[in-house]
Automatic annotation (TrEMBL):
The gene is RPA1_1. GO terms for biological process: DNA replication. This is 60S acidic ribosomal protein P1. One of its GO terms (molecular function) is zinc ion binding. Residues 174-316 form the Replication factor A C-terminal domain.
Amino acid sequence: DRNPDEFVDLCGIVTHCSPISTVVIRNSGQERARRNFTIADDSGCSIEMTVWGDTAQHCGIDENRAQFNPVVMIKNARISNYGGKSLTTASTTTLEVDPDDSRAFEVKNWWIQGGQTGAMQALSTGGAGGGGNAPKTVIDVMRMDNNLYLSLNGQAASDVPNARPVNTHTIQRATVAQIFRSGEKPLYYTSCITEIPDGRGGVRKCSKKVEQDISTGTWSCIDGHQNPQCMPRYIINIKLADISGEVLVRAFDDQAQALLGVAAQDMMNGMGEDEIEALVNSTQFKKINVRLRSKKEVYTDEERVNVSMTDFTPITDQNLQQDA
């Protein structure tokens, strides 16, 4: 809610860093070094930041270090309205990487405890940044994800040049080609509602899968929490397609609810099989602009790349007419 040219302090996680580049300043003709970051924090938002001059060259963050998502603490960053809303350095801006500070520890814990897999609202539209947020096709996503490697305790696990532990992608005009269902298996799972510490001084829902004891009606999770109720949460598998190909992605609760237009609780409590089938059919073939996050993980001793939806914008008939 701040206005352009105001100054702010920020502590967040570096999720992407572009290579350093040199630009010519139009009004002076001088060359200046520039580097772009994407920064996310526990507000659930991300923003692009442009770092200039000596700070860009000696800030302590480059493409390699950014792969391990360091914490950055910034004071007196200037707000810009370039690319939606973004940040840029000024003469009074200071930047510290992985500082010994309680706020930095809070943000890092949030990231480790689940922030890195959660949905993120992008305050910038990509004009100030580069690389990870540039629009791609499905085939671009698949090619880039071939270079993903496993991140083991923050250490590189690959000798492949330009390899990364996590990729972020933006695809424009993707089609929801298919929402996968397995018979009458629900599109949601039943989750634990017990509140546990979130690592930031607050609490969060356990959210692990629960099973119901039919004799008592109690819902229990693997950690031993027991409750008289549960909370259904979506996990849906989707095939996204564009002119270049198809990719399988997973949408978790917030994004799945926005896509389907129905809360998982409402689906569990009041929708019959025919209604659910009609809802799925009406959602398929929607066109969206979508942001994805790819990460290589191991399941049953097999490496695989998991791609999840972190944000999307529906494309309406009006959008298509304006682009025509």
